[in-house]
From TrEMBL, chain A:
The lineage of its organism: Bacteria, Bacillati, Actinomycetota, Actinomycetes, Propionibacteriales. It comes from the Bacteria. This is VWA domain-containing protein. InterPro entries: UCP010256 (IPR011195), Uncharacterised_CoxE (IPR008912). Pfam families: VWA_CoxE.
UniProtKB/TrEMBL annotation, chain B:
The lineage of its organism: Bacteria, Bacillati, Actinomycetota, Actinomycetes, Propionibacteriales. Residues 37-202 form the AAA+ ATPase domain. This is MoxR family ATPase. It comes from Nocardioides baculatus. Signal peptide: none annotated.
């Protein structure tokens, strides 16, 4: 493959991974590469990044694709080839495995990045090879390597070592966790690199590249993703708030302010060159949020609540209720300036109050809401229901929802599932959707867009 | 006429360091590329990581003058590009007392004398090396972006009465953004992109000690250590480099030679600006009240 082929393939892969790379930007990248020296891989990466990646969240995707198209080394590299004569016996069990784990423990304790990288390469080469039946069928497995080496078992030893080095409990544990996580990622990266080498990069890109954090489905998120998402909430709220004020200012031109216009016209000899207008009064709504907090959709409900409360100023009042099969008001949890972590904890605590029989029952929850908190909904308020509308085949209480929606000024239902799943199984999305407009809301980007619309 | 801003990425790093700005490799390389390819540089990142400072440092390092356009909501052509000085034009017409013909007056009042140049136009017209800083470009309205397009891609400005003004010497353009709004694809396409983030502990220590002379090495290390831990917490606003530098200055002013927990607790207000953030930090770092 020539250099140009690699470049074209790389740009194509970026496009299919969702980065909008234009032809002009591809040309820019080439002229940038002409200006830099190529002896350092990181230089090439930085030159590509400066010209092709124009949005920071896409950087993760870019790095993953770059590692596949411009691998760190080929095969086991120079170090792997002249490792000396092979010791007796099989390479991947017994004393060799023990020796390898010893080396790994040392590298983890010292935090030496170069050593960890080399060990990751070695781990995949030794323990992750999956010989195939014919040429081109062999493969590499990060999972097998990690199973054999099992770095997590070294955790205790690592923590002890760090404690001896003078760190306190909590930090030692965090540092150890981070280093082992880094090593796991290195092994995964190296397995990807070898597979790409064997099968061609274009086959690997599709399966390995994950969507960026704001496009990741709430229901598909891992634990670490959820933490990243939580960190995204406040920046997102700030961006939305900035956008809202700007739009409100743009729509602000109300009736002519005669006094200011005449006053300003004095500077231009009495000719009113610029007119001044009175600002319009902004319109604010009361928002009532009803969230399903049962296991399957709890994360989604929490994010939505956090976002709504972060944008509190845009509403005249927000009341929030959570339910599984009973309804609890949680508005008090969200004090102004409250701490995100505490809010999340008290929210999860409230879930136990919201469940009587621990099976989601929309009909019962809606009926209870109408009985106990009917005063929350008035002609000035908007009703927002969050949930997947999976009601375990129980009574749906459609008349109750119709009544609630009729009394509210607007009402929406946010569903974290893909529309193709609506109405399948016990999902009552279609029935509810006829009463209240149902909106698909699967990731942070869609959530931000929706919240922006209702404000 | 072209200016060679930097010889290479290493040269950029060395000269920026001499100008008091410590870069990482990617920043130095991107700054060098922006000069070599004569493309505008869009710098994005959280507040207080040195986006504006980068432009100033480039100006200092290259001995160029800095022309700054501070963007804000409602910024328009008249304040970004150029404006006709209509008061002076009115005076000119009144002073002639109706003796000139209309065409004479017309030719006369649309000349250089009555043109008020604003930052974008002055940056283009300068003959000396210039760094043009368009600060907080995300604060402007979408219309201003359209205005920037012509300036950024061709480095020229069209004034209907005078014709097109083309740059004799292309300025080094730096746009900064806090990402409060997505810029249009058209603007992004024309720029090189650089995301500045919080630096690693080592570089931050170097920055703090270089910005605050007289700071004890031990205190600097302790300070950076605390700041790094604070950034790991879930805070509304993580402390930036600017805030760690402020903190270092505070410690100098208070003549504190050892940053122990009590001192951290007392001076936490310098780095954390939300009450809930301070409480969280108190709790997580187990600080005495």
């Amino acid at each position: 493959m020539t250099l140009l082929d690699t470049h074209i393939g790389f740009v194509e892969a970026l496009r299919s991974a969702g980065l909008s790379v234009s032809l002009a930007e591809g040309l820019d990248a080439i002229s940038a590469l002409e200006k830099v020296s190529w002896h350092d891989r990181e230089t090439v990466r930085a030159a590509y990044a400066a010209t092709l990646v124009k949005r920071h969240p896409q950087r993760v995707t870019f790095d993953a694709v770059f590692d596949i198209y411009y691998p760190r080394l080929i095969g086991s590299g120079v170090a792997g080839e002249d490792a000396g004569p092979a010791p007796d016996g099989p390479l991947d069990t017994g004393p060799e495995l023990a020796r390898f784990r010893e080396a790994l423990a040392e590298a983890l304790a010292s935090g030496d990045e170069q050593a960890l990288q080399d060990l990751a390469v070695e781990a995949v080469a030794r323990f992750g090879a999956m010989p195939g039946r014919g040429p081109g069928l062999s493969s590499w497995s990060a999972y097998t390597s990690l199973q054999r080496v099992s770095p997590a078992e070294l955790m205790d030893r690592l923590v002890q070592g760090l404690l001896a080095a003078g760190l306190d409990d909590e930090r030692a544990e965090r540092t150890a966790g981070r280093r082992i996580g880094d090593f796991t990622r290195l092994v995964e990266g190296d397995a990807r690199r070898r597979i790409a080498e064997e099968k061609g990069p274009e086959h690997v890109v599709d399966v390995t590249v994950r969507p960026t954090i704001d496009r990741l489905d709430f229901t598909a998120a891992r634990r670490s993703d959820l933490e990243d998402m939580r960190r995204e909430i406040y920046p997102l709220a700030r961006r939305l708030a900035a956008r809202l004020t700007k739009e409100q200012h743009a729509m602000r031109r109300g009736p002519l302010d005669v006094r200011r216009t005449v006053r300003a016209s004095i500077a231009t000899g009495g000719v009113p060159l610029t007119t001044h207008h009175r600002p319009r009064r902004p319109h604010r709504t009361d928002l009532v949020v009803l969230c399903d907090v049962s296991g399957s959709v709890a994360n989604f409900a929490q994010f939505t609540l956090l976002l709504v409360y972060a944008l509190r100023e845009a509403f005249s009042g927000v009341r929030a209720f959570t339910f599984v099969d009973d309804v609890v008001e949680v508005s008090d949890t969200f004090r102004p300036g409250a701490d995100v972590v505490e809010v999340m904890e008290s929210l999860s605590a409230s879930i136990s109050h919201a469940a009587l029989w621990v099976r989601t029952n929309y009909g019962r929850a809606l009926t209870r809401f109408a009985e106990e908190h009917a005063d929350a909904i008035g002609p000035r308020s908007s009703l927002l229901v969050l949930g997947d509308a999976r009601s375990n085949y129980s009574d749906l209480a459609l008349p109750v929802l119709t009544d609630l929606a009729g009394r509210a000024r607007h009402s929406w239902w946010l569903n974290p599932e893909h529309p193709r799943h609506w109405g399948t199984g016990d999902s009552a999305a279609e029935q509810y959707g006829q009463v209240v407009p149902m909106v698909e809301c699967r990731n942070l980007a869609q959530l931000g867009e929706f919240v922006h619309q209702i404000v | 006429m072209t200016t060679t801003w930097f010889e290479s990425a290493d040269d950029a790093a060395a000269r920026l360091r001499a100008a008091g700005y410590l870069t990482d490799d990617a920043t130095a390389l991107t700054a060098y590329l922006a000069g070599a390819l004569e493309k505008p540089l869009l710098v994005e990142g959280p507040a207080g990581v040195g986006k504006t400072e980068l432009a100033k440092a480039v100006a200092r390092a290259a001995g160029a003058e800095l022309v700054r356009l501070q963007c804000y909501e409602g910024l328009d052509e008249a304040r970004a590009l150029y404006e006709w000085n209509y008061k002076k034009q009115l005076l000119r017409i009144q002073a002639s007392g109706g003796e000139d013909t209309w065409s004479e007056t017309h030719d006369d009042i649309f000349t250089e004398e009555f043109l008020l140049t604003r930052p974008l136009l002055s940056a283009i017209r300068r003959d000396e090396p210039t760094v043009l800083l368009v600060d907080e470009v995300d604060k402007t309205d979408v219309e201003v972006e359209g205005l920037l397009l012509e300036v950024l891609s061709d480095f020229q400005v069209t004034i209907p009465e005078l014709g097109t003004v083309t740059a004799t010497r292309r300025p080094f353009v730096v746009l900064t953004s806090n990402a409060s709004r997505e810029l249009s694809e058209a603007v992004k396409r024309r720029c090189l992109f650089l995301h500045l983030d919080y630096p690693d502990a080592e570089r931050e220590r170097a920055i703090v000690t270089s910005q605050v002379p007289g700071l004890d090495d031990k205190v600097a290390a302790q300070l950076v250590d605390v700041v790094v831990r604070l950034r790991e917490l879930e805070l509304k606003k993580a402390p930036s480099i600017a805030e760690s530098v402020d903190w270092a200055r505070t410690l100098i002013a208070l003549q504190i030679g050892d940053l122990d927990e009590a001192t951290v607790a007392r001076t936490l207000g310098v780095v954390l600006k939300h009450a809930s953030d301070q409480q969280r930090a108190m709790k997580e770092l187990k600080l005495p009240r």
